Amino acid sequence: MRPDTNTFKALAREFLAALTERSVKPAAIPPAHLPFLADAESEPIRPRQKLAPSTRAAKRPPSIDPRPEISVVLGSYNRRALLERAIESVRANLDSVRGEIIVIDGGSTDGSIEWLVTQRDIITVVQHNRYEEQGQTRRRMTWGQFMNIGFRAAGAERVAMISDDCYLLPGAIANALGRMDEAGGAGLQVGACAFYFRNWPQEEAYYVQRTLGGNLMVNHGIYTREALAAAGYANEDDYAFYKADSDLSLGIWQAGYAIIDAPQSICEHFMSAEETARISNNATLDHDRQQLRNRWPELCSRTGTRKMGRKLLDWQDDARTAERVFGDQLTQQAEPQRAVSSV
Q1: Stretch (H or E) spanning 16
Q2: Alpha-carbon gap, residue 91 to 69, rounded angstroms
Q3: What does DSSP assign to residue 130?
Q4: Which fold has domain 70-330?
């Protein structure tokens, strides 16, 4: 006599329940762990461990705003006048994109912090990164440590990075996001997107850079949070300041992600005469260059270094944005020089 359908279903449920119970039976807890596990006596059923933690955000409760489409991270120290202009350009770019702004301030004393904390749309983190000791300025943290604070605080799946002396032209962020979507639709696993930039007023042409091995890198641009995590975020130990962005870009390539360019995403970077002189005679830059070679020796062959360079953009800004935004900074630099020459 065959069992009826209901009896068969009941037996099947009991069998599956017993099978499940056996499969999730908790492993024996080492005696040394017991004093720290307050729930051990209930023999809890632990969630199955994932092979790799997901960087994708889960759906949020209806009472909470959705995550931003883009997080914009800036580091700053004692450059309030330039920082305010950079933020102005970011805000204009976020008019058409749901975004957030994160500023990591290194302990400014020029009024930057006081201004930042009054800006309700900016997430401000103050990390006193410099101090005086025996008449010398010391750094407590590397560029990688400093920027990782902002990268890890970012709420969006895509994270833009610019400097506090940058100015984004209209549409830079939206155009880069569209470019990343287009490349993804073509089957490319995009980890980052580089903005075209120039160091004004020293340079006229806009470009993106190829680092060791001829690999495209991000000076200013957008990363995916997934690629940042896969690359281990910015190197916090080997570089003081200058080459950690090159290293991060190589780490993204190494993790299997591509870095693309965004020809319609333009970033003006103001380079003062003082900074230009400092870079041209800088032991820290020399140190960081050597560290990059040490970290990526397989890319330092004659062929690998020959592939380094720039990809130029055939475009000029008829609006002369850099001159309009940064022109007064050149005047301020010239006045002390005239004063010195007249003494």
Answers
A1: helix 5-23
A2: 14
A3: E
A4: Spore Coat Polysaccharide Biosynthesis Protein SpsA; Chain A (3.90.550)
